[in-house]
Design goal:
This protein has 227 residues and is of the alpha+beta class. 17% of the residues lie in helices and 34% in strands. It binds manganese (II) ion.
Length: 227
């Protein structure tokens, strides 16, 4: 195939314990999937799940230094369980949804909260508050064969060593299987899709120089420094 210029490199994420990487197709995110965070954002607690996307090249894998994004004065962290799919389909029944999962990772849904709030106020898309460059730091993926399907256990984030988010996967309003099934009603999912599954309460503003360290029990940890 000839292109008029070289195509962009495909995004990929390391797989723990493997030399092979996980090739990323799409990156979906669930909004307000923990009652505590829904409340701090001023919403009801168990609305149907809703979704937005990040561009796959917004992922930053493996942690380390992450450049503070442009055009915001209120960058916030959201620590999330990330689901990596090895199979897909449309209208996936909830009871078969977990069969699609390749593995799990820890992700930070970095958010330009000021831009997101402006969009909300105007009834406009969240795109630029959520889907910006380097907005998706993510750990290595741990395969299901190693970690099973985590449904309980701590999900936490510290800023400069101080605990800010301290939730439990049991607090998810919609389980991983329900999220996959519901999303597949609207779009056909496929191998390579990632789903950020929402964040517990405690989001806060971070600035250049801050060290963000987060984890999900049984899945892993992720650390970045904003530079
Ligand atoms: Mn989020």
């Amino acid at each position: 195939m000839d292109y008029v210029f070289p195509p962009a490199t495909r995004s990929s994420v390391p797989v723990a314990g493997s030399a092979a990487r996980f090739p990323v197709r799409r990156v979906y995110c669930v909004g307000r999937n923990y009652a505590g965070h829904a409340r701090e954002m001023g919403a009801d607690t168990r609305e149907p799940p809703f979704f937005f996307s990040k561009p796959p090249d917004a992922l930053v894998s493996g942690g380390g230094d992450v450049a503070y994004p442009q055009a915001t004065a209120n960058l916030q962290h959201e620590v999330e369980l990330v689901v990596a799919l090895a199979k897909g389909g449309a209208n996936i029944p909830p009871e078969r949804a977990l069969d699609c999962v390749f593995g799990y990772a820890v992700g930070f849904d970095l958010t330009r909260r000021d831009l997101q709030q402006l969009s909300k106020n105007k009834g406009q898309p969240w795109e630029l508050g959520k889907g910006f460059d380097r907005s998706g730091p993510v750990s290595a993926i741990r395969p299901v064969v190693a970690v099973g399907h985590p449904a309980r256990g701590a999900i936490w984030l510290k800023v400069n060593g101080e605990l800010r988010q301290n939730g439990d996967l049991r607090q998810m309003s919609w389980t991983v299987g329900e999220v996959i099934a519901n999303l597949s009603v609207y779009v056909a999912l496929a191998p390579g899709d990632l789903i950020f599954t929402g964040t517990p309460a405690g989001v806060s503003t971070v600035v250049r120089g801050d060290v963000l360290e987060g984890g999900v029990a049984g899945v892993g940890e992720l650390q970045i420094r904003l530079v």
